[in-house]
Amino acid sequence: MHAVEQSRAPETKAAGDTSDIAEAFGDFMSTFEAFRESNDQRLAEIERRSTDALTVEKVERISKALDEQKRALDGLALRRMRPQLGHDGQALPSEHKQAFDAYMRSGDERAIRGLDTKAMSYGSGPDGGYLVPGETEAAIGKRLAALSPIRSIASVRQVSSAVLKKPFSVSGPAVGWVAETAARPQTAATTLAELQFPTMELYAMPAATASLLDDAVVDLDQWISSEVEAAFAEQEGTAFVTGNGTNKPKGFLDYTKVAEASWVWGQIGYIATGVSGALPASNASDVLIDTVYALKAGYRQNATWVMNRKVQASIRKLKDADGNYLWQPPAAPGNRAMLMGFPLVEAEDMPNAAADATPIAFGDFSRGYLVVDRTGVRVLRDPYTAKPYVLFYTTKRVGGGVQDFDAIKLLKYGTT
After folding, report:
1. d(CA 277, CA 343)
2. Gap between the Cα atoms of 90 and 88, Å rounded
3. What percent of the chain has pLDDT over 70?
4. Does residue 95 surpass a pLDDT of 90?
5. Is residue 13 a part of any domain in this protein?
6. CB of 157 within 8 A of CB of 373?
7. Phi, psi of 319, deg, nearest 5
8. Do the domain assignments include residue 120?
9. The predicted structure's pLDDT at residue 279
10. Coil, strand, or helix at residue 378?
């Protein structure tokens, strides 16, 4: 089957119709079979030392088509997950939703001001805007969990304060074995330390026309959630991976990284490939196995690979000693691809392969990384700054950081 035939994006059909997803998944699996056949040919030519440039180009072309179809398939699955907030007569709007709709359409804030008495801004109350209805906030949160790759595998905790303080034990109490009738000596006290996860402000500013606001059929709750969710997810995704902790969450790659043999709490351990900027030319799967077993058994049960699209494309071509591909496609629409039996999450903010880069992470992110959401998404209506458009300054507060440094390991493309 030709790669050109398989590279077409699946067509979008009516919401709730599963035939489009089934068709897209069938195309995806057919493309993977074409990729596997072409890559087998490429590997055979390498063994004969007579590699054909056309074969290499064909493998790369089909690999790119595979990535495109996977993104399209994920997009179809995400559209099916979008909550229905429209005026379909399924539920009467809440009092808060009606008041918020009046504020969004005409700027009439009398009703929502009476309902929304909380401080809208941490540090300054009067100029923070108004809280969106609970169902809209839930819709945004649900979609963010699907769109933001790290959020989808991390622990998420909601707080009402600006900072989450999480204690952890540095040294537990002294324990030991004693005889049944022997005296029990007093144990030493537990030593505790504290991790802090401050929440930082994340904002988006969608613009609306007067005709959109005047159209009573348009559900403004659904409009605002669809406008901000992609912007929020993109900014979150970057911060959770590489954020420096200044006015944004601290990403897991921003912590001090050390060789696994020298690992201590507060640092992220890594395994080196032994080759600068690349995987080993032979037995590349060995370093992936070393990375897997750098994690303790308790963390491996729920572990996930994290890498970007380009690194995944290079991993996709690898085989084990028995000739089986290490990367396997998802078993069903909406599932994740597997690498050596563990699910793989594609995060475009992970670095590319380069000297001393750490483009692959592996770990139990639900125990290793914590996302902190401060409850409440706020909207401030601005009809003045960009006339004739109306801007909606939408903010939420989110923080994040590593909570268990034993749960995440990295693969470093370097010699030491």
Report:
1. 24
2. 5
3. 81
4. no
5. yes
6. yes
7. -125, 160
8. yes
9. 94
10. strand
**Range of the structural domain that residue 62 is part of:** 3-81
pLDDT tens per residue, range 232-289: 999 999 999 999 999 999 999 999 999 999 999 999 999 999 999 999 988 889 999 9
Q: Where are the alpha helices (DSSP H) in 123-219?
A: 134-147, 210-214
pTM: 0.75
Burial bucket for residue 83 (CB in 10 Å: 0-12, 13-18, 19+) = middle
For residue 146, is it within any domain? yes
325-345 residue pLDDT tens? 899 988 877 789 999 999 999
**pLDDT mean across residues, the chain:** 82
* Same domain, yes or no: 128 and 77: no
**Cα gap 365→301, rounded to integer Å:** 11
Q: Are 392 and 226 in contact (CB under 8 A)?
A: no
**Top-confidence residue, 24 or 384:** 384
Report the number of distinct structural domains present in the chain.
2
Q: Are residues 162 and 254 in the same domain?
A: yes
Same domain, 99 and 197: yes
Of 29, 59, 81, the last residue of a domain is 81
Q: What is the pLDDT of residue 225?
A: 86
Distance CA 13, CA 20 (A): 6
Q: Are residues 361 and 249 in the same domain?
A: yes
Do the beta carbons of residue 236 and residue 151 sit within 8 Å?
Answer: yes
Assess whether 13 and 32 both reside in one domain.
yes
Q: How far apart are the first and last CA of the chain?
A: 43
Which of the 8 DSSP states describes residue 62? H
CB of 252 within 8 A of CB of 265? no
Across 390-409, average pLDDT = 95
Residue 226: in which H helix or E strand, if any?
Answer: helix 220-242
d(Cα 140, Cα 143) in Å, to the nearest integer?
5
Question: Coil, strand, or helix at residue 408?
Answer: strand
Q: Tell me if 8 sits within 8 A of 27, measured CB to CB.
A: yes
Closest Cα to residue 401, out of 143, 261, 194? 194
Q: How far is CA 355 from the centre of its chain?
A: 25
